[in-house]
Write the structure tokens for this entry.
Amino acid sequence: MATMRYAILADIHANATALSAVLEDVDYRGGVDELWCLGDIVGFGPDPHDCIEILRKFNCVCVSGNHDFSALEQNKLSSYDSDSAMVLSWTASQLTAEDTQFLSQAKIKTEKDNFTLVHGSPRQPLWEYVLSISIARENFPYFTTPYCIVGHTHVPIAYKKEGSTISSVLLSENIGLILGDVPMILNPGSVGQPRDGDSRASYAIYDSAVGVFRLHRVPYDLVSVRERIWGKGLPVRLASRLERGE
Ligand code: ZN
């Protein structure tokens, strides 16, 4: 297989400013052959249509997230808090027929290179959060590729399985993680709504030539996103949350 570089973007959450900043950063770092989008393109944020429009221009492999699913189906809205559910109904009203088509083409689980790609977990691709070593442990049997990439928690982390021992390491920006012989579950954090206390957009680049998965953090104009959240009548709490990185 030719060596490839991939940019891995999860949980964009209708934040076009963060998405554009990340794509500029990808360019600045020499570009990639393909984008992998780990779901939740929409939900929470003010720019569902713009984000899909931007992604459409790229060579992009997308899996579906719970917000993408719920925006399309207007289904399971009762499993969200009231702000999220309100934004999901609003999101549906913002999507064109092409946007809906784009979102509904995404699979819930796919394999690329050495990776299984899902939004939540390999066991429950739309809904399960891999939030702990014990949940990670239960999920290792559910993929057959060497590694699995997930999103959904909005926290950049890697879980590693050595024999029966599972360990985790929080990912730091610019530090490359060398993917070796042991199975791993990797999370690149969130582009549009980080929840690790750092408001900067989070994403990763994987370089198959050297087998390195590297996290990057990108500052972006939070004020313009806050103004669009206000301007479109979306819950103000969603703007303050972005500023706190939670
Ligand atoms: Zn999400």
